[in-house]
Amino acid sequence: MRIRQHGLLPCRRADCPLARRASVAGARPGTATSIAGKARDKGLTVRGYVSMCFGDPWEGPVDAPAVTECTRALLDAGCDQVSLGDTIGTATPGHVLDLIDRHATDGIGAQSLALHLHDTYGQALANVLAGLLSGVTCFDSSTGGIGGCPFAQSATGNLATEDLVWMLDGLGINTGIDLDAVTRAGAQITRLLGRETQSKAGTAILGAALKAGSL
């Protein structure tokens, strides 16, 4: 199970055809084709990102064909995997199941996909489970649920790593991640940022440790 990878973000809006074409096509510097080509020449794995796959703060719901078009373009540009972003956190499990199914119909398997989820409406963990049921095994998360989006002000933080690992551990999925260590790191990061952790699992784990005198 992979929870985080580095990649590139060449396509900001799934519903903006002009932006899609400009950011993906061609060999000029800065396009997905150019960046992916240089990365692959160095033996690197390339992961592309499509933002606002489920909802756009300016225009509302996004049509699935626009998303799959972006995904196909990024794969054709040389990306090994494409992450579908719920940038403003409006997706539900039904949306996730439908979009991954649409990709499968268009010949793009779940092994080529990842999910980048925000927890604005409290659906991120449920959306991970929907992704798992559809065959997706790679998810983005952030310690303490920190984050947001500079071009979508309505977006709250990313799915908290602590919550994600707690759920995956409960499902018997081995992530190789030390949950206690991540929780302590999250507590330190949020303290330094002057923010409260957004992780329910992290809060509970820290509370239990304090009660037991082990923190």
Describe the protein's architecture and organization.
It comes from Sinomonas cellulolyticus. This is Pyruvate carboxyltransferase domain-containing protein. By secondary structure, the protein is α/β, with parallel strands linked by helices. The protein folds into two domains: 8-140, TIM Barrel (Alpha-Beta Barrel); 161-215, no CATH class. Helix content is 43%, strand content 12%. The chain has eight helices and seven strands, in the order E-H-H-E-E-E-H-E-H-E-H-E-H-H-H. The chain has helices at residues 17-24, 32-41, 64-77, 93-105, 124-133, 161-170, 179-193, 200-212; strands at 8-11, 47-50, 55-56, 60-61, 81-86, 113-117, 139-140. The strands form two sheets. A five-stranded parallel β-sheet has the order 1-2-5-6-7. It has a two-stranded antiparallel sheet with strand order 3-4. Helix 4 (93-105) runs parallel beside helix 5 (124-133), helix 6 runs antiparallel to helix 7 and helix 7 (179-193) crosses helix 8 (200-212). The longest helix is centred in the C-terminal third of the chain and has 15 residues, at 179-193.
